[in-house]
Amino acid sequence: MKETIDRFLKDKFPQYVYKEEEVLSNLPVFFLKAEGLLQVFSALKTSPGIELNYLNDLTAVDWLGKKNPRFEVCYLLRSGNKSTTRVQFKVPVEEGEAVPSIVSLFKGANWPEREVFDLFGIPFRDHPQLERLIMPDNFQGHPLRKDYPLEGFGQDYLIEDLLTIHVKEDMGAE
């Protein structure tokens, strides 16, 4: 499958291949540019013989001080028809750079994209509801970043403030 997808990307979307790099993994890994993500995934989803039509996972990695660009958004796609076919795609992004949302292609990307936004601070362009998913609304920062302080402002968000916010919202609803 790796050769098929490699040939597909080089033939149809060479402008969106970020780089070719061998990665020690039991999965084929491809690096894509953020601007071509929707076009490439749409084609891979419907292309006969490939049909990567199931989003298995979506997460991110912070490579602070080890790689440039700093972040990689990682997508694990597989074929719903061929359960053994799984392919990983990585999209390198700089600090503050937005990645196009793939919710329009894979509805299951909604919460994982919100989780990545919440924990890493990576924004997803055109996401239908990009807001915190795990951390409280008044939490400061993004706790899975490598430069997030182990002690300091993040631990000091006040539960009392959060309760006050939600009590006011609840009282306002009545």
From TrEMBL:
Domain of life of the source: Bacteria
Bilayer-spanning residue ranges: none
Gene3D superfamilies on file: NADH:ubiquinone oxidoreductase, 30kDa subunit (3.30.460.80)
GO terms for MF: NADH dehydrogenase (quinone) (non-electrogenic) activity; NADH dehydrogenase (ubiquinone) activity; quinone binding
Topology in the lipid bilayer: Peripheral membrane protein
Reactions it catalyzes: a quinone + NADH + 5 H(+)(in) = a quinol + NAD(+) + 4 H(+)(out)
GO cellular component, one term: plasma membrane
Compartments where found: Cell membrane
EC identifiers of the protein: 7.1.1.-
Uppermost EC category: translocase
Keyword Cell membrane: yes
Keywords, alphabetical: Cell membrane, Membrane, NAD, Quinone, Translocase, Transport, Ubiquinone
Major site of localization recorded for this protein: membrane
All residue ranges annotated as the NADH:ubiquinone oxidoreductase 30kDa subunit domain in the record: 33-152
Listed SUPFAM superfamilies: Nqo5-like (SSF143243)
UniProt keyword Transport present: yes
Family statement: Belongs to the complex I 30 kDa subunit family.
Biological role stated in the UniProt entry: NDH-1 shuttles electrons from NADH, via FMN and iron-sulfur (Fe-S) centers, to quinones in the respiratory chain. The immediate electron acceptor for the enzyme in this species is believed to be ubiquinone. Couples the redox reaction to proton translocation (for every two electrons transferred, four hydrogen ions are translocated across the cytoplasmic membrane), and thus conserves the redox energy in a proton gradient.
UniProt subunit comment: NDH-1 is composed of 14 different subunits. Subunits NuoB, C, D, E, F, and G constitute the peripheral sector of the complex.
NCBIfam families (alphabetical): NuoC_fam
Annotated protein name in UniProt: NADH-quinone oxidoreductase subunit C
Organism: Leptospira fletcheri
Gene for this chain: nuoC
